[in-house]
Amino acid sequence: MIKSDYSTRDIKLTSYLHLSPLTISEENYNRYFYYNNLELNLDKPCSVSNFSALLNKPDSPYSKDQNCNLISIFRNNITDSILDYYKTDIYATIPPNFIPTLLHGHTYYEVVYVLDGSCTHYTEEDVTQIKKGDILIIPPKTVHAISAFNDSCRIINILVKANYFHEVILSEIDTNNSIYTFVESTKNKTINAMASYLIVNTDNDMRIRNCIYNILYDSESTGKSDDYSKHLNILLLIHHINAFKSTTKSYVNEAMDSKYNISYILAYMEANISHINLSSLANFFGYSERQITRILVNYTGENYQTIIRHMKMLHAAKALINNQASIDTIAAELGYGSQYGFRKAFINEFGISPSIYRSQHK
């Protein structure tokens, strides 16, 4: 189907969410260009030359967009230029649909929220469908692209400077938070490391949606108070996302630098020590149980059961020394159904019972 006129189509979202006139013009132009150049397959990972064809047309509205230099994508690592333009560490925007699917990386964290419909996320390694209510978190240097080539889809992008995330946000969230473990494990990722990302199905949670709306609204302002409001809403957003651990899935390629890969897996085990099992661990990282076991054995020399038992016993030893909770309570907090099983594991680890260990360390 050929769209003959891209300049007159109106795009409405809700009574309180609007696209700027420039974004509307860009989306209409993108749609027009796509349907008139179907042979370019712009909805799949495309070449730089095909992407450039969109930008370089004489009637392209992108020549009027001073906020973002799309040509920087060609360097395969978009800089913080848009954040610097707005003089902020956090910025949210609603991008136009039908942007050609060019794989790229960037220096900031990108949070993609699917407001409506569905779209496709591409990396160099895989293809993932994301739908209404899903949140996708992409760290710096991950090469990826979003394909949003339908009128029912609408996404919101939140960009966060990496140093701000590492130095400010991480210092204010709990170390057991799933976002903390993900960011902590990927922040030192090398430029040649394989793609990694996190997907959370939020079940269209209104608390999460409201946080994102607030960040988007504050991004349209320029005052320092709005920066503080964005900061608070990012923290609140991370807090609410953590409630959806059971629907959170991380992708970490098995070929990724082993030091950062295994550190992330072990950190996730520590953060979920009371209820984790091999099946849920494998599912979170997108592996089979056999694959995750092989990774653990290859890089630690121990299997899952041995590692998690060591972790639980170290936690138990600290708890016996540092707090007055009963042994039954400590056992339950570590996922043991009875004191007998806990006591047996503790004796196998330390050679003495939990009660004797506690008395010796008073």
Question: Can you describe this structure?
Answer:
The protein has helices at 21-35, 48-56, 81-85, 162-169, 178-186, 206-219, 224-241, 258-271, 278-285, 289-300, 304-322, 327-333, 339-350, 354-360, and strands at residues 90-93, 109-116, 118-123, 127-131, 134-138, 144-147, 154-160, 196-201, 248-252. The protein has 362 residues and is of the alpha+beta class. The strands form two sheets. Strands 1-7-2-5-8-9 form a six-stranded antiparallel β-sheet. Strands 4-3-6 form a three-stranded antiparallel β-sheet, with no helix packed on it. Strand 3 (118-123) and strand 4 form a beta hairpin. Helix 9 crosses helix 10 (289-300). It starts with 20 loop residues before the first helix and ends with a helix. The model is unreliable at 71-75 and 256-260 (pLDDT under 50).
Can you give me a brief rundown of this structure?
The protein is α+β, with helices and mostly antiparallel strands and 362 residues long. The chain contains 14 helices and nine strands. The chain has helices at 21-35, 48-56, 81-85, 162-169, 178-186, 206-219, 224-241, 258-271, 278-285, 289-300, 304-322, 327-333, 339-350, 354-360, and strands spanning 90-93, 109-116, 118-123, 127-131, 134-138, 144-147, 154-160, 196-201, 248-252.
